[in-house]
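Progress report, Aim 2. The chain analyzed during this reporting quarter is listed below.
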Amino acid sequence: MDDTPPLSVEHICDGEGDGCRSDARCCHNLRKALLTEERMRRKLQFFFMNPIEKWHAKKRFPFKFAVQCVKIFLVTLQLCLFAFSSYDHVNYNWDNKISFCHLFLKGWDATQEVNAYPPASGPLAIYKQEDFYTTINYAFKGYTNLKDAVGAYSYANEDNSPADMQLCIEEYKEGKIYGFNESYVFNSEVVRRCENISQSEVGPELDSQLLFSNNSFNISFDALVKAELMFSIKTVNFKAASRISAPNCYRFDITITFNNEDHDGQMLLSLDADSSRLKCKGDTEFITDDEISTTLRSILNYTVIGVCLVSLVLCCRTVWRAQQLKRVTIMFFEQQFNKTLSSADRNKFLNLWYCMIIVNDVLIILGSCFKEEIERQGFTTDHWSVCSLFLGIGNMLVWFGILRYLGFFKTYNIVILTLEKAAPQVLRFLLCAILIYAGFTFCGWLILGPYHLKFRTLSTTSECLFSLINGDDMFATFSIMSNKSSLLWWFARAYLYSFISLYIYVILNLFISVITDTYETIKLYYSEGFPKTDLENFIGSITCDEMCSGIFRTGSSESLGGLIKDLCCCYPKLQKNYSSLSRSNSMQNSNVLSSNNSI
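Predicted structure tokens for the chain:
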């Protein structure tokens, strides 16, 4: 190590720095540049401090940290309240859909309400033309006898009279099949026709086959693609009623679908119910209480929006100032050391934590706006899922942001540093693993799809293979393979054994080893020191006494504009002096002219 002390301003002006004594202006500029260098170092030191260190350095309250603490509490409270409402809403819609299936869908069985694997029963379908008309008659009968239902259902008309049901069919323009001599007449153009079914015309009992034949609404099952039977009913949800909230009113638009797109001899039958919230005209006792509830929810929503806006502005300002400081630092290194700042050092000025906070602020603001409109019944359609998506992802990112503050502690920072350093290697590794995975997925879907329940679609094939990687339901995957083709049965065994062996015993262990090696490297850095870049060498270290000494509380040291002005006033001769002087110092003291960082 070179023990020669660095040259000071006095040495330079005494003749040891290219004869600056004869040039008073050069001496003045050199002192100014040295001051600029110190200000640059202090500016960078302060920029890379954590909020607690900045508090000690400037005695300024950490507003961004406080805003994040308040935001995480309010956002979580808002999410919890909305989660209960969303669950009640979705569960209420699902329960009503099950009720409608029992009331209007002929052949519906309770075993079809439970999602089981393997399925306890096959899909609901009809196989005879007579069953098609019988299903329409059954739905009409349930609709006209709505008063017999346990639920408090009413008709959509204001006078509670049954509105007309509507049957719409989609069929090929021409479609006739003559199987006995292998001939057909076919026009692929699909046309749509609709017919109203009015109770005033048909009475309490409906014979749909007779009705359609009289109305010349004949249905050709050879050409039929899809049929939809549509009607609407209204109801009021008392479950949501409490001391400070009124019941909700809904209109359900029910659609019974007859799907004959495959023309395979079975017509799949399904029921769907879309809900829309209506403006209730309830008892006056609930009106006042409902206003209290609405006001409280609105206050919370607007408070969350306000806090997120403040957080968004503060973080955007910080990111913008960081980019300004990066440009100043690049200019400083080019002028003073004739060096270009490395890409790793430039990336240090882009704090991804702030970018994540900006994203979650935007999501939460949008979600809060949707939530306010939903609670004020400003939407006529169902936006609960969209609102849940915004609030859920936003809240998740808010909680992820806590990792930033845990990273200030050595014990927790090792996890974050491991993930950060391993990320490039993990992404490269995953790219190769995904290509192999895609090959297995497409192969399994094509070959095993017609014979295996788990490979019926590309999505279920991918889900099946991912489950196998995690050791889920392996025996069932082997056992439910169809024995229709012995060749494919043996192929399925070879396919599954090779995939499981490759991913569980090879790829998964290699993936773990990548993370483990990075973890060991980070542990070694903690014991022997992290490798430093030019920027980190220039910044150096700062003690607690220096941090609290007040050197960071001077206004001049915080002016980016002053730094730019000083750097732009440097002359080529002065830059030459800096270049020669910077080479005389070691990299450990950041190659700078500072008596405080001498070796």
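Residues 284-336 form the longest helix (53 residues). The CA atoms of residues 308 and 471 lie 42 Å apart. These observations will guide the mutagenesis work planned for the next reporting period.
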